UniProtKB/TrEMBL annotation:
<dbReference type="InterPro" id="IPR036428">
    <property type="entry name" value="PCD_sf"/>
</dbReference>
<dbReference type="Pfam" id="PF01329">
    <property type="entry name" value="Pterin_4a"/>
</dbReference>
<keyword id="KW-0456">Lyase</keyword>
<dbReference type="GO" id="GO:0008124">
    <property type="term" value="F:4-alpha-hydroxytetrahydrobiopterin dehydratase activity"/>
</dbReference>
<dbReference type="GO" id="GO:0006729">
    <property type="term" value="P:tetrahydrobiopterin biosynthetic process"/>
</dbReference>
<protein>
    <recommendedName>
        <fullName>Putative pterin-4-alpha-carbinolamine dehydratase</fullName>
        <ecNumber>4.2.1.96</ecNumber>
    </recommendedName>
</protein>
<comment type="similarity">
    <text>Belongs to the pterin-4-alpha-carbinolamine dehydratase family.</text>
</comment>
<dbReference type="InterPro" id="IPR001533">
    <property type="entry name" value="Pterin_deHydtase"/>
</dbReference>
């Protein structure tokens, strides 16, 4: 099982993850899609990746703004699972033209 990361470990990891912020409790990133349907396509793509990893973000959709929040709830904070998911989300954001 993944180990809980300290605030310092999370801060160090976030330095290399564009757009993400947070602490040892959770990390988040908000992106803007070109349109509402484009945002939903991004959410759908993230859902597919999350299912394959068996690790799921909290997702908040507000028209063309989508916020992804990652935390390992069973551990009570951020683990390497969350950082890996954040990297995968960044790949999808870039591939799908969100910003």
């Amino acid at each position: 099982m993944a180990e809980l990361l300290s605030d310092a470990q999370v801060a160090e990891a976030l330095a290399g993850l564009e757009g993400w912020h947070g602490n040892g409790k959770a990390i988040s990133r908000t992106v803007k899609a070109e349109s509402f349907p484009a945002g939903i396509r991004l959410v759908d793509a993230v859902a597919e990746v999350a299912e394959s990893l068996d690790h799921h973000p909290d997702i908040d959709i507000r028209w063309t703004s989508i916020t992804f929040t990652c935390a390992t709830h069973s551990k009570g904070g951020v683990t390497e699972l969350d950082l890996n998911l954040a990297r995968r989300i960044n790949d999808l954001v870039q591939a799908m033209g969100a910003r």
